[in-house]
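Title: Prediction job returns without error message
Component: structure pipeline
Severity: low
Priority: P3
Assignee: unassigned

Description:
Job completed but the reporter wants confirmation the result is attached to the right record. Sequence as submitted:
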Amino acid sequence: MHLRPSGEAVALSRDGGGLEALVERLAALRPALVVLEATGGFEVAVAGALAAAGLPLVVVNPRQIRDFARATGRLAKTDRLDAAAIARFAEAVRPAPRPVPSAAAQALGELVARRRQLVEMITSEGQRRRQVRDPRLGRRLEAHVTWLQTELAALETDLDDAVRGTPAWRAAEDLLASVPGIGKTSARTLIAELPELGRLDRRKIAALVGVAPINRDSGCFRGRRMVMGGRASVRTALYMPTLTAIRRNPALQAFYQRLIGRGRPAKVAITACMRKLLVILNAILRDQIPWQPA
């Protein structure tokens, strides 16, 4: 732990006693902001303890910290130097605190992630099955695909129980699924992996997902707008619903045709429709009003 602006540093163990000492010390200091670096799940226990104590906490992407450290000329990397870089990042950037997902929300996120992994494995094994010529190997691949499909069916039941058994998630799923193109899988991915939906304005939610165009201008030069960063899993979950909505949702269908009529490439028009669909979903959860066709 590194404190700013005093520069004080201290190392604590990541166990029950260390977490109690950390919370007690920070609670006494009453910090304006506590920034924690995401470390592949090792930060969860620490974030949970700090959030439970009511401290203003934000968990940031480690890439942001490394980019910030490099920008300040600090290339060496140790635990002490990393803590100092995170503290300086917090002081300079002041990222907004975000609520830590509850245990139930984390469990839902794991179920959604596991479903995505199973679907990817089924697709990969199916492709391998079509390529092999050895009958014995083909039977083994078929058996594996059957097992994966059984696991996927069981996971779908767990997901259904988790979402439909929680009133807030059930209401959110019903609202999202009222939009043409959004099915249960897409709605549950949004609930699990985009909890900010309905809580941010349209520009912030688009930037968070990574579908907001980024300017690339310099002087008289006007570069092509691009999208980058954001949550890839959410964009993936929105892609197919966007294609469906372009065909079935009159508002998005008309929007897409206008963009194509102006000479926009199809991929650019689809990305714009994805952003528009996200903004619609954000407004629906914000206002708690289901989709109403014009």
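Comment from assignee: result matches the submitted record. The mean pLDDT is 88.
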